[in-house]
Specification:
Layout (H helix, E strand, L loop, with lengths): L1 H58 L5 H17 L4 E11 L8 E10 L4 E8 L4 E8 L3 E9 L5 E11 L3 E10 L4 E13 L2 E13 L1
Antiparallel strand pairs: 1-2, 1-8, 2-5, 3-4, 3-6, 6-7, 8-9
């Protein structure tokens, strides 16, 4: 009986060792998979940001600059989904013509919702006169266009405040609007988020271009 017990104990120990090695192997594979996916996500995110910046730079002197940027974002989201990644974006784009001292200047503002969810509320406030615009129920992959007017005799920095709320989150952004007499400008703000199974890449950034 003792001999049989030793055999049984030996079998159990052997099975345990094999199980332990297998578990360690699986853990190592999963860790490597997570590491590789994190690298892929980071590279994809940086490439997306670089290409987005290039799209702005090559489109700034065209009347369809907003259309080009929005088309690029929409195309990128479809491509990224194939990689089992999700791209969420809020894009705010503001443009105004050459500013003349003491003359009303109209600034066009476009907000593009690519958050993969509906915005319950979208509120914008312009510091020039504290004017406010409110919107509700902004569907995913939709655009809001509005105009603000300002009048200045000298160079000044205004602020465009943007608040948006979805079912799961909300955010308030303060975007600097640098105004210079005799110059036209394009200001773009992006909140980019790239999510995968093992993490998230996110960055908020602004590009300001003086137009010719």
């Amino acid at each position: 009986m003792k001999g049989q017990m030793f055999i049984i104990i030996g079998i159990i120990v052997s099975i345990f060792i094999i199980f332990l090695k297998t578990t360690i192997g699986i853990t190592s594979i999963l860790e490597n998979k997570q590491h590789l996916e994190a690298i892929l996500r980071s590279l994809t995110f940086q490439n997306l940001k670089n290409e987005l910046t290039k799209t702005i730079q090559i489109s700034y002197n065209k009347t369809d600059v907003f259309s080009n940027v929005n088309d690029f974002l929409n195309f990128s989201r479809r491509i990224i989904q194939v990689k089992d990644l999700e791209l969420d974006v809020i894009a705010v784009e503001a443009i105004f013509p050459n500013v003349s001292a003491g003359i009303d200047t109209q600034m066009n503002v476009t907000i593009y919702n690519l958050l993969n969810t509906k915005l319950q509320n979208l509120d914008l406030s312009f510091s020039y006169d504290n004017s406010v615009r409110n919107f509700t129920n902004i569907a995913d992959n939709s655009i809001v266009d509005i105009n603000f007017t300002f009048n200045t005799n000298s160079n000044v920095n205004y602020t465009l405040s943007v608040f948006y709320k979805s079912f799961s989150s909300n955010s308030t952004e303060s975007i600097s609007i640098p105004v210079e007499i005799g110059k036209s400008k394009l200001i773009t703000f992006f909140d980019l988020k790239l999510a995968g199974s093992f993490g998230i890449e996110r960055e908020k950034f602004t590009e300001t271009i003086t137009l010719p």
